[in-house]
């Protein structure tokens, strides 16, 4: 496979602004990025630089103002509402800071929602959910409800829900922002391992520069564009405004 064929996410010239007091304030300003199959990327940047805005565009939740975006060769910009909904369900796995699990569903049932939304055969969903939860270390907690799980365990369920369909792209917005440092590190490790195993392109938005020591690349969002961070070790300085 050539390098070009391995590119899963290709974005260029992406712009997005919001009107503020009558003026348009640019958040993304001709942003460009390219991510290969199975590659993991950490995105750092001070608060308000547009990290969540970027993830929402990549995930087909919000439209960009202009620019190009393709995922697995599919032109996302051209999709209508129905096409975008399908793209989100089939190609994108989202992981949020506060888990967003459904409280009335068990761990297995929560994960099955991710499987079924992607249109996978429902008779295989239960096994797929149990298998991925087991590989995330939750073999003994499969049938628990979210409130019966710790924060770190709930986030592992959310990771399983996002990944069970083997999405082309996994978008995680401060996924460990609510966890203690030790649990955060272990959870990140599991997320990276699972995404690698499923060959999903993984984008982790984080305020924790040390996560970049574990991803393939670190990018810093600044002035509406992404800058490549050569050394994860130097991330703290770059991270400061
Ligand atoms: N719906 C909206 N309407 C107007 N302005 C918005 C909207 N959403 C985001 N913004 C503005 O866009 C900028 C980027 O917001 P965004 O949430 O993407 O930042 P962020 O990098 O994720 O910040 P944080 O690290 O605090 O989560 C901010 O200045 C924010 O106020
Ligand atoms: Mg944000």
From TrEMBL:
Protein name according to UniProt: ABC transporter ATP-binding protein
Family classification = Belongs to the ABC transporter superfamily. Macrolide exporter (TC 3.A.1.122) family.
Keyword set for this entry?
Antibiotic resistance, ATP-binding, Cell membrane, Membrane, Nucleotide-binding, Transmembrane, Transmembrane helix, Transport
Q: Cite a GO CC annotation.
A: membrane protein complex
The source organism is Pelomonas aquatica
Matching Pfam families: ABC_tran
- Which InterPro entries does UniProt cross-reference here? AAA+_ATPase (IPR003593), ABC_transporter-like_ATP-bd (IPR003439), ABC_transporter-like_CS (IPR017871), ABC_transpr_LolD-like (IPR015854), MacB-like_ATP-bd (IPR017911), P-loop_NTPase (IPR027417)
- Enumerate the CDD domains for this protein: ABC_MJ0796_LolCDE_FtsE
ABC transporter domain spans which residues? 9-241
Q: Which Gene3D superfamilies match?
A: P-loop containing nucleotide triphosphate hydrolases
GO MF terms on file? ATP binding; ATP hydrolysis activity; transmembrane transporter activity
Q: Which SUPFAM superfamilies did the record assign?
A: P-loop containing nucleoside triphosphate hydrolases
Q: Name one GO biological process term.
A: response to antibiotic
